Amino acid sequence: MSKHIIKGIFGVFFIPFLVCLVVIIVCQTAVVHSSKGLMYSDVETIPHREVGLLLGAPKGLTGRPNPFFIHRIDAAVALYQAGKIDRIIISGASNQRNDETNAMRTELVRHGIPTEIIMMDGKGVRTLASIVRAQKVFGIDSMTVISQKFHNERAIFIAKHNGIDAIAYNATNISSRKWRLLMWGRECLSRVKAVFEVLQSKV
After folding, report:
1. 128-174, pLDDT tens digit by residue?
2. Which string of DSSP letters, residue by residue, matches the chain?
3. Is the model's pLDDT at 62 over the cut of 70?
4. Cα–Cα distances in Å, from 49 out to 22, 84, 95, 135, 140?
5. Measured between alpha carbons, how far is 116 from 104 in angstroms, rounded to an integer?
6. pLDDT digits (tens, 9 = 90+) for 9-59
7. For residue 8, pLDDT beyond 60
């Protein structure tokens, strides 16, 4: 194989791969940096916010209980019981196939959360929609986002670039290594998309 062919193959495959890798790293760095100092894992140290934004998750995962769902519920209950939030907005998908908001509401009530402090947003089908709708539909400019850390970082990035004063409480992450890797891969792409959406909104 000639050197020209080798160089051609190198250019076709390696350079685009390198560009993609740089973009992913830059986006990861931007999201993590944006959320620095705004993430909490200890219910005792997190500041009070009137509203907690509970990001939706399906109750079941491949036929089994979804640990993301369970841990987010536990986190929201812990915050309310500790007096760190006064109201909860549940934001997620709400349709015949996947009714995240009603499933989460039922579980919160089962854990003793009063129904009158729970608000529902069944149109929060994406993290961006959940954040933006909390501000535009519910008039919320200050909140505590409730989800897993990897998700919270992106949510805070989006909130900050939409002029929302947001902090986040990190629910316990899933223990399965397989699912953690799958979610990490998905999150990398979601962060790239979030950064480009923010940039596009400023053009």
Report:
1. 999 999 999 999 999 999 999 999 999 999 999 999 999 999 999 87
2. --HHHHHHHHHHHHHHHHHHHHHHHHHHHHHHHHTTT-EE--TTTSPP-SEEEEE---SEETTEE-HHHHHHHHHHHHHHHTTS-SEEEEESBBSSS-BHHHHHHHHHHHTT--GGGEEEETB--SHHHHHHHHHHTT--SEEEEEEEHHHHHHHHHHHHTTT-EEEEEEEPPP--HHHHHHHHHHHHHHHHHHHHHHHHHT-
3. no
4. 37, 6, 30, 14, 11
5. 15
6. 555 666 777 888 888 888 898 899 999 999 999 999 999 999 999 999 988
7. no
Tokens of 9: 């193959």
Cα→Cα distances 180→26, 70, 101, 177, Å: 21, 16, 23, 5
